[in-house]
Design goal:
The complex is a heterodimer of chains A (about 325) and B (about 775). By secondary structure, chain A is of the alpha+beta class. Helices cover about 30% and strands about 15% of the residues of chain A. With about 775 residues, chain B is of the alpha+beta class. Chain B is about 25% helix and about 25% strand. In chain B, the strands form eight sheets. In chain B, strands 3-7-1-15-12-13-14 form a seven-stranded mixed sheet. In chain B, strands 9, 10, 11, 16, 17 and 18 form a six-stranded mixed sheet that branches. Classes of the chains: A alpha+beta (about 325), B alpha+beta (about 775). At the A-B interface, helix 13 of A face helix 4 of B.
Chain lengths: ~325, ~775
């Protein structure tokens, strides 16, 4: 951890100006930045504390959309009555993320900026090679301990898993992130590594996340988030699925379905092949299981993470079956 | 450390306070309110802060260390390397055997034998400055090939531990003749102690006197090590360890980082504080060693075991020796006419493993207690029934009577409380929705380890009582049970007793490990308190100014802090009144449990080494604690995730000095067992020898959500052959047998036998081949 300057921004505009400085990093809840600074990954020249900016922590939910300020705490969003009733997958994803202490500190904007838990990324002293830290230095994970690594969206440069839960639900329901001058789909805000593993987010110097907006939908209202892991709590997903379902009047035929995956891909992963295969179909277990397998098209394993290829479709299927049962 | 101001709820009865009462921990309020001051929370004038630099290779030589940038950094006082740190003498081992008196000991390594070995230290005015500068120290290595994984135990330097060979009958021939065979290999993983309080210390020199504030399970042993390292008299070292935030076996020895801090303090002439980071708590000292054991069982068709052949191997570092004795209870669980067990170790580029709760017994149980379950399945017998068919009525190895063995009772009582009779025998025959339900049982044992202890008991002028001992309380309840022992022996309320522990200048004590402390120290305190009481009564009877003088009584009794005739008729004085009347400010007695005629040298050896431990099979008896665990698991049929949903354990630890504390220790052991069965593993990168999950987010300890209600039932009876007051070991026992009970329950739930711990979800996926965890 090296010395840094500390600036406190009292307005979004001040934060944007400061964020344009070289080596500047934003501090909100601090649960990611402090952690990464301690393990030597983040070395900010300037830390800009935005946690005191007023008006950025509002949560405003109508049937049409949820508008969530970037400084809203994970725990507040998770416990928000309308989020729970109109966007249950969002609330459930948050409840199953991190620990109570972290959820009380961490913000929604910061949550989107969470970095991977790849142990090689997080240990620069022992593993100098990491394309995510320094493009061109190589990937220590490939050939190493890969049990937690991604099978979807991987490249030869990087196989690090996107670790979060919330963004998986956001991607399923076409949420957008407000960067001021620009608005992006959350799905596009996250970047798969390709040949540029160091770029995880489409965010430019001087841009500050101010809010996310989730469009309301029947599928969002009937949604769930299932997270599978060895430990009951406080563990990143071995595989997770955010699923929303809208049925026709017959109570069996799929009008709309949303499926996104966590824990298995380099970014929050929308499984459109599964959605397309099920739209217009009458739901039964065999159909659901067969369609869920389509999520793994193009999956590449690195040995110890092979199990994820079989596991993820089962998580999707369980989520759809659960929603179908609540008809 | 003194636990003052112990106020008990009005409902606490005298019975609660006596030995055997369910008194709550007397140190609890201080811990809950934050008043408890741990060793490294000591505030000292002029304290400097040390941060270690560790090797990033597992084998090779440190060619050079670049320290200029670090030395120039703000606040830095010194950067020490293998070339510049002072050389120490080599200390003797924990039996007191000198290792290499002619050689010197350099606590920073030039020759690297494991990843994470300390190679330099930065000392600065503040902790932050030291952290910042340590990142500037750059080492250049000449790297050598490293062997970092035990694998199948055939690579690397293999050493046979001949002293652990156990043989009787003709195991090979009997196995060949037996109509039923079982052969299986069981693996247990490297696991960490993961104490919440990290290792660390403050070292301060005053001339040639050294004071160390450091969490310690063995003050006298560690003080001896410091004295030998620096060539100063034992008496010149004072170790202070008032509370320990979890030890589990890891805090019994002074380690390399301890030597670094003490050497730096001496070189700089300033007190130095050094704390290991959380990551270093996974790499600087070893946890439980990886083990592998092969078990061959031969039985007749009725399930009677005819032969057991057991071969075990555990990992050890290139330097030093630690054997994870996987055959330790294989020989005592079941009656068999033929037996053979051998143990090897393999040298790897890893840090020296350490004893962790029930070292040896715990992985040993995973082998034999899974194997007997497999045999039961093969024969179509109930897992409980096969254990009773093969019940050992005496120690099959030592051929001696058990001191006490309430294992049959544990099986019966545990089965009844669990509802075992309702178990559907076939695997995969119980379910609830997507959850496959399994019930498993396993037994465990831990030997009674004994030595001797001493204690000082003081009756003060105001009637209060002080107990002093250099033994320690790492959460198991020493403060509490010693207060109970003194209170009961002297006839005073517990609230009048203060217990002082954790200072090596107090009456001496041996290691707190192997579940021996309670048995030893209650005996020593009982003896010291009895002597003090005799003196008090003697004073009362002999002083002509006192009302007891004319009673012609030959004794008096103390009850609720008041002294009078045993029948309670006649005059009565409080202890304070008596002390005032006879003009005494205190009565002090030192009691020990050593035999008369013990020499000073033997006493020193008793407290500072483990060489004087008394074998558990000494004399006519074989002494052990026993337990039986009954476990229910739920396994998700799609995901392979395992959740423990119920635990009922019946345990025989003899007489319990405080059942509430004993239950807490048993439950702690059971929880640790759940962690080792399902979650915990120090995962090593095969190429670098680095533990890649050296933090609490990635090293999976069970959370509260992973732990169901645990019911513990005591089935013990006082065991006069094991300790003065009839207790046997408590703390180590609870974990033994938990992992096999869970593995057996997982088999019952799924029909799949997992012989490699931890049982993670990918090992249970249906229809897919089990791939080895770790590297591709």
């Amino acid at each position: 951890m090296r010395d840094f300057s500390y600036l406190r921004a009292d307005s979004v505009e001040a934060a944007r100006n400061a964020a344009a400085l070289p080596g500047a990093m934003l501090l909100a809840g601090g649960t990611t930045l402090i952690d990464l600074a301690k393990c030597g990954v983040a070395e900010p020249a300037t830390v800009i504390d935005i946690s005191h900016i007023e008006g950025l922590n509002a949560i405003d939910v109508t049937a049409d959309r949820a508008l969530i300020g970037a400084l809203a705490k994970m725990s507040h969003v998770a416990d928000h009555a309308e989020v729970k009733s109109l966007f249950p997958a969002v609330s459930e994803a948050l409840w199953q993320a991190a620990s109570a202490q972290l959820r009380n500190m961490a913000t929604i904007g910061g949550n989107l900026m969470q970095r991977t838990r790849c142990p090689y990324f997080r240990d620069p002293a022992n593993f100098p090679a990491c394309n995510k830290r320094e493009l061109g230095s190589g990937c220590s994970a490939i050939g190493g301990v890969t049990r937690g690594h991604a099978v979807l969206g991987v490249s030869e440069a990087c196989i690090a898993t996107y670790p979060g839960d919330l963004a998986v639900a956001l991607v399923a329901f076409d949420a957008e992130v407000d960067l001021g001058e620009r608005r992006l789909k959350v799905e596009d805000f996250f970047l798969a590594p390709g040949a540029t593993a160091e770029q995880e987010h489409d965010i430019r110097p001087g841009e500050v996340i101010t809010a996310i907006e989730i469009p309301g939908s029947a599928a969002a209202r009937r949604s769930t988030y299932i997270k599978v892991r060895d430990r009951q709590s406080y563990e990143f997903a071995a595989a997770s699925a955010a699923v929303g379902l809208e049925l026709e009047g017959d109570g069996r035929t799929v009008r709309d379905i949303r499926v996104a995956l966590g824990g298995v891909a380099t970014k929050p992963w929308r499984a459109r092949a599964v959605e397309d295969a099920l739209k217009g179909k009458a739901l039964d277990e065999a159909t659901i299981r067969e369609a869920s397998e389509l999520a793994m098209q193009g999956a590449v394993d690195h040995g110890a993470n092979h199990y994820k290829i079989a596991l993820a479709p089962r998580v999707i299927a369980r989520a759809i079956l659960k929603l179908g049962e609540t008809a | 450390m003194t636990v003052h101001d112990v106020k008990h709820a009005a409902s606490d009865s005298a019975r609660l306070e006596a030995v055997g009462g369910r008194l709550s921990r007397v140190d609890g309020p201080a811990k809950i309110t934050g008043a408890a001051r741990y060793a490294v929370e000591q505030q000292l004038e002029g304290l400097a802060h040390a941060v270690l630099v560790d090797s990033t290779i597992a084998a090779g030589k440190v060619v050079s260390i670049e320290t200029q940038a670090a030395k120039a950094a703000r606040g830095v006082i010194a950067v020490l390397t293998p070339d510049t740190i002072m050389k120490l003498s080599v200390a003797s081992d924990w039996f007191g055997n000198p290792l290499a008196p002619q050689r010197t000991f350099c606590p920073l390594a030039r020759d690297v034998t494991y990843c994470g070995q300390h190679i330099a230290v930065v000392i600065a005015e503040t902790f932050e400055q030291a952290v910042s500068a340590a990142a500037l120290v750059m080492a250049d290595y000449d790297q050598a090939p490293a062997l970092v994984e035990l694998g199948d135990g055939t690579a690397g330097e293999i050493i046979s531990i001949e002293g652990m060979t156990k043989e009787w009958g003709n195991a090979q021939a009997a196995l060949a003749e037996a109509p039923v065979h079982l052969s299986a290999v069981y693996n247990t993983q490297r696991s960490a102690h993961a104490a919440i309080e990290p290792h660390g210390l403050i070292a301060r020199w005053e001339g040639d006197r050294l004071t160390i504030w450091e969490p310690s399970q063995w003050l006298d042993g560690m003080a001896r090590t410091y004295a030998e390292w620096f060539g100063i008299p034992f008496e010149n070292v004072r170790l202070v360890s008032p509370y320990i935030g979890g030890g589990f076996g890891s805090k019994a020895l002074a380690l390399a980082h301890s030597a670094v801090a003490a050497a730096a303090a001496k070189m700089l002439g300033r007190p130095v504080k050094l704390m290991l980071t959380r990551s270093q708590n996974f790499t600087s000292y070893g946890g439980r060693a990886t083990t592998r054991q092969t078990i061959d069982l031969g039985a007749d068709k009725a399930g009677r075991i005819q032969s057991i052949i057991h071969r075990g191997v555990s990992e050890v570092s290139l330097e030093g020796m630690w054997v994870e004795a996987v055959g330790s209870i294989t020989s005592i669980m079941y009656d068999t006419p033929n037996f053979s067990s051998r143990q090897d170790v393999v040298r790897l580029n890893t840090v020296l493993p350490n004893p962790k709760r029930a070292p040896g017994e715990n992985p040993s149980a995973f082998g034999i207690e899974c194997a007997i379950d497999e045999l039961a399945h093969e024969l179509g017998l109930d897992p409980l029934e096969i254990r009773l068919i093969n019940y050992a009525e005496q120690d099959p190895h030592a051929k001696k009577a058990w001191s006490t063995r309430q294992l049959r009772e544990a099986f019966a009582v545990g089965a009844e409380a669990f509802g075992w009779a309702k178990r559907s025998p076939a695997p995969r025959s119980m379910r609830a929705g997507h959850q496959l339900i399994g019930w498993g049982v396993a037994a465990g044992a831990y030997p009674v380890q004994r030595a001797h202890g001493e204690a000082v008991v003081k009756i003060m002028f105001d009637g209060s009582v002080e107990v002093e001992s250099s033994s320690i309380d790492m959460g198991q309840g020493t403060y509490t049970i010693l207060a109970q022992t003194a209170a009961e022996t002297l006839g005073v309320p517990v609230s009048q007793v203060s217990v002082k522990l954790g200072d090596s200048h107090f009456a001496r004590a041996g290691v707190t490990g192997g579940s021996r402390l309670a048995g030893i120290m209650t005996g020593a305190v009982h003896k010291a308190a009895s002597q003090a009481l005799d003196e008090l009564i003697g004073l009362a009877l002999s002083d002509p100014r006192l009302p007891f003088h004319g009673l012609q009584a030959n004794t008096l009794a103390v009850k609720d802090g008041r002294i009078g005739s045993p029948r309670g008729d006649g005059p009565e004085l409080s202890i304070a009144e008596l002390m005032a009347a006879v003009g005494r400010d205190r009565i002090e007695a030192k009691g020990d449990t050593l035999p008369a005629g013990t020499t000073a040298e033997e006493r020193y050896k008793n407290y500072t080494t483990i060489a004087m431990s008394i074998p558990h099979t000494e004399g006519d008896y074989s002494r052990h604690s026993w337990c039986a665990h009954f476990v229910e698991v739920k396994v998700d049929e799609d995901f392979g995730t395992v959740r423990v949903s119920r635990v009922v354990s019946a345990l025989d630890s003899g007489r319990l000095y405080n059942p509430k504390l004993a239950e807490s220790q048993w439950k702690g052991g059971i929880i640790m067992g759940i962690g080792e069965a399902l979650l915990e593993e120090g995962i090593v990168d095969r190429r670098h020898g680095r533990i890649v999950n050296s933090n609490f987010a990635d090293y999976m300890l069970p959370t509260n959500a992973d732990i169901p209600d645990i019911q513990t039932i005591s089935v013990g009876i006082p065991d006069p052959h094991s300790s003065a007051l009839g207790g046997k070991g408590v703390g180590e026992l609870g974990i033994v047998g938990v992992a096999p009970a869970i593995a057996n329950a997982v088999f019952h739930a799924t029909g799949k036998r997992v012989r490699d711990l931890p049982i993670t979800l990918e090992k249970l996926r249906d229809g897919a081949e089990a791939r080895e965890r770790g590297c591709e």
